[in-house]
Amino acid sequence: MKIDVIYKKKSDIDKVDFSNIKFGKFHSDHMFEAEFSEGTWKNFKILPFDNISVSPACTTLHYGQTIFEGLKAYKDKDDGILVFRMDKNAKRFNVSAERMCMPIFPEKYFTQAISELLVVDKKWIPNKKNTSLYIRPFMIALDPFIGIKPAEKFKFYLFTCPAGNYYSEPVRVKIETEFTRAIKGGVGYSKTAANYAASLYPSVLAQEENYDQLIWTDGKTHKYIEESGTMNLFFVIKNTLLTAPLGDTVLDGVTRDSILALAEDLNVKTEVRKISVKEVISSIKNKTLQEAFGAGTAATIAPIKTIGYNNKDYNLPNHNSNSLSNKFLNLLDGIKYGLINDNHNWIIKL
Question: What residues form DSSP beta bridges with 4?
Fold first, then answer.
């Protein structure tokens, strides 16, 4: 893949306070663009970050045929660029593409596009603790056609933005028992805009009640825990690490997968199984729940301090340096910043 590069004349980097980075507020100078038509990908470009133009009849605007991904790049102590699990994100992107009737973007294109864009915008990658460069690949359908059918023309884009912590402190979450994020047979396992649009209204209602996020339950009975709005979920009950199984209603989180691998390294007893709301609430009441946390690319590890259920708040034990979530966070950070050995070959160094 040959990528043409058009450089921005004047950088916007001076507009960013790198000592206080707001997640997703500022975008780096450049973006990547590729076009799919007549059955092939073509016109690969890195160009200045700017608005894009589409037809008012664009398929994406009317029927939501769009997917995206999220991953991060880091700086090591030698100013090298480290990218975490880029191959895993490439594979998941194409799982979403298949579900949404969109063309596969070859993994070798995905990794090359990210690598070359990061080299062009290297100065945008923060080098302070708890900072990174967030990478957003996405694909949209372009056909100017009012009719429900898969499109034939698409564009793939990449842009990046410097990022600090997504959550600055342990979070308050509410178990959702009325609204549904995803249902069996649907698109819940793919990163498509429809999943997130459907979650906005109940999330706003929860925020009005002073919760940071929702815990989504199964759409049929609302008896079983699935995931949170921005994270997969983990519970430590009686020294056992629990998380919900994957399926067509739960996203195959990259951080989730990494934690399960690290848990095996640490010989932590782990169970991937259905977790009932009743089990979680009972374990809080009888004090066998030791901690709960979310895991995701944006949030990394987000300790949970309060779980709301049926108009009652349940406060969880305080997290400390010996918490399992803290151990996972330190290991993940050590690998991502090149401070400890990457025994799983998760890091690509550019």
Answer: 45
